[in-house]
Amino acid sequence: MNAPLPRGVCPPLAVPEAPPRFEAEERQPPRLLVSVRDAAEALQAAAAGAAIIDAKEPALGALGAVPAEELQRIVRALRAAGHGQPVSATIGDGPWDEAALEARVRATAACGVQWVKVGAGPGEARSVVALGRLQARLRAEQTAAEAAGPARPLPDWLGLVPVLLADEGLESCRLNAARAGGFPAVMLDTADKRGGSLLARRPLAELQAFVQTVQAHGAWAGLAGSLRTEDLPALRSLAPDLLGFRGAACAAGRSGTLDGTRVAALRAALG
Ligand SMILES: O=C[C@H](O)COP(=O)(O)O
């Protein structure tokens, strides 16, 4: 029997030596999530076939938040143009204490988005647990609003999405907190965009363990992190529910302008 781990130590993610075969044909192709910084880019991404419009200011870091006024403009512009795609938005880089986290999440949700994405770096399993508590409270509020009938409008959003930053790997504690949190989706992403594609940085088996663990708990599994078009065959073999792009959807790097042609090409390549 293994000796018990000292308190506070989190073992690395257990990765099977030969990753289990996944019945990819049972799942639909991954949905395309495209990060946009303003309403014009959002309209381009939606018209080019993005399934989820993700509001993010790339100049402010891996999880840079779009200002609230611009976020509202993005939602309004999409709906006015008849695009029904869900909108996600990040709250910006943490760390957050629990009260600040809740305030940021509620303020972001109030802009009319469906998902609020919150980053969690290495060793931040506790933040993910706190996020799970907030998710449970918000869900209870939604249920109460539903029970109160049509007189009380339902909040126009669905849930929180932890984004696990995994440039150097993913510890089991963070993944366990994410899978147990009752989130609609969990994403893996990179913090340092100069380090290359997630696929080049982490072993395929580790990514597959992430995807399968999240999906086994009923959530969507999403992958992002400087993903490139040439990564798509390997990414598809992992059968994630979401693939997130910014850099590969821009003509001059992730801080440049979104290119609708590139988004359309990514959409076509996803099948
Ligand atoms: O959520 C998706 C990210 O915005 C991906 O950005 P990236 O492709 O530049 O890493």
UniProtKB/TrEMBL annotation:
E.C. no: 4.2.3.153
EC category name: lyase
Catalytic activity: 2 D-glyceraldehyde 3-phosphate = 4-(hydroxymethyl)-2-furancarboxaldehyde phosphate + phosphate + 2 H2O
Key words of the record: Lyase, Schiff base
This protein's record includes keyword Lyase: yes
Pfam family of the protein (one): 4HFCP_synth
Gene Ontology MF terms in the entry: lyase activity
Active site: K56 (schiff-base intermediate with substrate), K117 (proton acceptor)
UniProt xrefs under InterPro entries: 4HFCP_synth
Function of the molecule: Catalyzes the formation of 4-(hydroxymethyl)-2-furancarboxaldehyde phosphate (4-HFC-P) from two molecules of glyceraldehyde-3-P (GA-3-P).
Name of this chain's protein: (5-formylfuran-3-yl)methyl phosphate synthase
